[in-house]
Amino acid sequence: MFRENKDHLQQELFNSYSWMNPKIQASLQGTWAPLFYEHVFCKIDETPFSCLYSLDNGRPNFPVNILLSLEFIKHMKDYTDEDILEQFRFNYQIMYAVGLRNLGELYLAERTLYEFRRRVYRYTVENPDKDDLIFGQFEKLTAQFIELAGINTKEQRADSTQIMTNIKLAGRLSLAYDVLSQAVKTCPPELLTDSLKHVLEPEYKTKVLYRSRGSEAQKRIQEMIDLGIELVSITEPNPDIRELNAIVILQRFINDQAAFDSEKNTWKAKANKDIEADSLQSAYDQDVTYRKKGSKGHVGLVLNIAETCADENPVQIITDYTVEKNRVGDAEMLAKRIPEIQKKMEVTDFYVDGGFFSGEVEKQAQDAGITIHYTDMTGKQPDPEKIPLTAFTIKDHKTVEACPEGHAPYSCQFNGKSNVILAHFDRNICSNCPRQGACPVKFRKNNTVLRVEQSAIFLAEARERKEDKRARKEATSKRTAIEGTNSSLKCSQGAGKLKVRGKVKATLVTGMKIIGHNFKQIVRFFKGDIRKKATEIVNNNNQGVIVPIC
């Protein structure tokens, strides 16, 4: 039965804290624990979690705000489950942070923690159209932090980073063995043939993985695909077995790694170069994909974050995050998140690298009243001898009103399906134009035509903004620090290699780590460990008189 935890609002007159030496009490008040209690624990909204419990039957739930707080602290400090449970039982700072004033006052079983996570995960899977419960807490706490520190959210930056789930980096041969062996273990023994039973013997693994020469790899993969086809055929008459997760993964592996030869009625293993990037990468996690970024290949997921970056901010706060399969591009993620970010807070400028450019990003940004500043641009550089599209007068990125010489087209159409503009000009005027050699219009028999994709206009505008050296330097300065934020999440909080599998669990865990990161920024704010630029701005505004921000 769900019940909100309000017990911390009225403490006992005599408790562990009241018996402490006054100097120890003062020392405790100077730590992160009281800040966490006041600005995180007391601000947690437990009501959205009522859907995880019965409303009128059963034993009251373990306090949700304590469970959530322990998860936030765990991921803030990169503890293991054993660590956080031990800290909860014996560390008074942790007890104080979660509203308890007597050491050992409340017992938390390991199973209770796991059951809470299971309920949150199940709710997220069953409600894919809704924001997950952790993201809801992130939004509320972030709004609280922004107000608390007086953060300016108008200027923000975004960046993505590769993250891994709890899988091993397996080669193609090792992946084939893992998928096949898991499927064979799942299948009832009485259905297995002798050749399939042999897969589970230690000698088979040794032969396949450790005693095969490089030249034999393709042969071994074909052998395991054949065994997989045999297992799938055996389970065909039994839907209950066929729908087991290990069998489903085996079927996907066969479809990814082999092609069906209709003439010979057989499956033949594909060459390495023919394997798609979104093919199965792990026998234990179907969500991870392969992506080559630069010269390095990555297997896993991708995390994209948005963070404030105004110079006057004492600290910077992460305002949004999303986790996707790593084959999803930066521009696609940002295009989806811009409208969501603008709903929550006012944003006027975004600072990103060139990998985030797309026509859709520019369209979403302009619809939201946001200017995107790029530190660089990918793709082919425009010919400096040609007239840029920005020299034309184009209304709403849909209608060409005039050429660079001021001549209007006699007709202009915009195709909403292909997002292409066709503007027709008078051929006689264009023939006598002194700039016709540099103009992008094409001469036809009866007229001249400017055919331009809408995305090309957005690209030309973005390149023009980037050409301002001063603006580019400022954009680079504002964007660069987000690399440090990603590094902090991955190195000090374990976001680089998560201890869970699957996109849903990875998103939930990452959200908790980001809440922990934002809280650490608030601790910095209260301790006066603010950014150098913010200090300089305050000092200048006060004519050299140092005024503490906090």
UniProtKB/TrEMBL annotation:
Cited InterPro entries: Tnp_DDE_dom, Transposase_InsH_N
The UniProt record lists the Transposase InsH N-terminal domain at: 44-119
Q: Which residues cross the membrane?
A: none
Which residues does the UniProt record annotate as the domain Transposase DDE?
403-522
What is this protein called in UniProt? Answer: Transposase InsH N-terminal domain-containing protein
Provide the species name: Pelotomaculum propionicicum
Q: Tell me the classification of the organism that encodes this protein.
A: Bacteria, Bacillati, Bacillota, Clostridia, Eubacteriales
